[in-house]
Structure formats: C-alpha cells, structure tokens
Amino acid sequence: MPADRPAPGRREGPAKRGSRPSDRTARSRRWVPPPPLPPDIDPRDLDRSARAALRSLPKDLADKIAAHLVATGTLLEDDPEQALVHAKYARSLAPRLPVVREAMGLAAYRTGDYATALAELRAVRRITGDPSYLPIMADSERGLGRPERALALANDPDAKRLDPAERVELAIVVSGARRDRGETDAAILALQGAELNRTTVVGWTARLWYAYAAALLDAGRVDEARQWFGSVATIDEDGETDAEQRLAELDAEDR
Question: Around 25, how many Cα atoms within 13 Å sit in the side-chain half-sphere?
Fold first, then answer.
C-alpha cells in the first residue's frame, strides 16, 4: 500500500467410510504443513485485541495460531514471503476468524499477491464492518491494473470513518490511480489540503510529501517536484522513501 500498511478450523483426519473421493481430496488440499517458527516467538506477544479474538478456541490451538500470527507480524517487513507462509498456516487452522484473514490479507499484499489480499480483506470487512483496510484494498485494485475500481473504493461511504492516517493513505492511493489514468492534474489535487500543509511532521508526512512530489513530476512541474523531494529527504530518517535517489536523478538530468 500505500507502502509502498493483520467454526474453528482444524486439520481434517482420515476420511470417514463412505466419503466420496472428492471429499477426501478437498480435505487433503486444506491441510497446510506447519512452518518452523523463528526463535524467540512467544504467542503471548500477540496484540491483546487479536488474542481476545482467539478466546473461543481451545487453549492449545489458540496458542499455536497466536504464535504464527506473531511470526507473521515479525517477518512482514523484512521477509514478507515467509510471513505469508505463517499466515497461510494460521488460516488453515481457523479459516473463519477475521484476525487470521486480516494477517493473510496483509501478508499477501506485501508479497504483491493483490487478488488474495483483496479477497481476504473484503472478508474481514464483511465480517467486522471495519473500513480501515479500504486504502490497502484500493491499492490492491491498482496493483491488479484496475485504477477505476480503486477510485470507486475511495468513494465508498465508509471512507468517511477512516482516521486521519488512513485518510492520507487513501488519498495517496487515489493520486496514484489518477496518475495511472493519465490524469496528472487530478493526481496533484487529490493530495492537496490541510494534511499536506501542516507544519508538524507525523508518521505519514514523508509518504504524503513523496507522493505529492511524484505527482508534480508526472505533471512536468520539475522544479516544484525537486523542492518536495528535497523536503522529504530532510525528514525521512528511516529511509522509507527513495527521495534522495530521485533528487540525484533529477540533478543528473540537468547536467
């Protein structure tokens, strides 16, 4: 995403006598082998609200799922492919729990499996009514080459319920979708407003400014884009963006 932003299931036993071959095949396909857990993974480290969502399960099963959800979250940034392996296993154990499907959706998104991310996060929204993943869902539509669907999600009435950080993320996606469609002026306008002009730097400031610089550059407003990329470079201490590289590229083009 905008990054560019997680009845109890169980392994089926042997097929009962009289089961059809297709039933046995379906059961075998649902089983996912348990991946080894990274060292120092403790199921008690799972977020309290996520842990509460597992209370309806037997303790041993809840602890197993919790451990793999913790592993998913731990690996999500640096090794999303492996995070997805743990999320898939957790989902195989409790395929109907929103907290498990959320983890699966986020891990799939990070690996670029946008179709799976959409399916899982749609299910979470349908079950819980929580709109907070609208930005990731919209960006997944972009990833699937469907910017018009991304824009439709941005106009969903529930978008008004997003918190400020989520609204910024959705605006970044909208700007990107407009750029996908060649609507450069609209891409710039999508990011303008109070959040862009605020003087206090917050967690999403670098991402917002970077998206604005990129939109300006697409519109041919190179000098303005350079200024905004420069502003990003001064605040992006964690290297969340490649603003410094973009500046260097622009400088090289001027030589």
Answer: 3
160: which 2 tokens? Answer: 């008004």
Q: Please give the average per-residue pLDDT across 181-205, as a whole number.
A: 94
Residue 87 CB neighbours (<10 A): 32
Same domain, 101 and 147: no
Do 84 and 139 fall into the same domain? no
Q: Structure tokens of 224?
A: 């303005």
Kindly report the pTM of this predicted structure: 0.84
- Domain CATH for 71: 1.25.40
Domain ranges, residue 32: 1-129
Q: What is the number of structural domains in the chain?
A: 2
- What confidence category does residue 254 fall into, taking pLDDT thresholds of 50, 70 and 90? confident
Rounded alpha-carbon distances, angstroms, from residue 231 to 130, 139, 204, 210, 227: 34, 25, 14, 9, 6
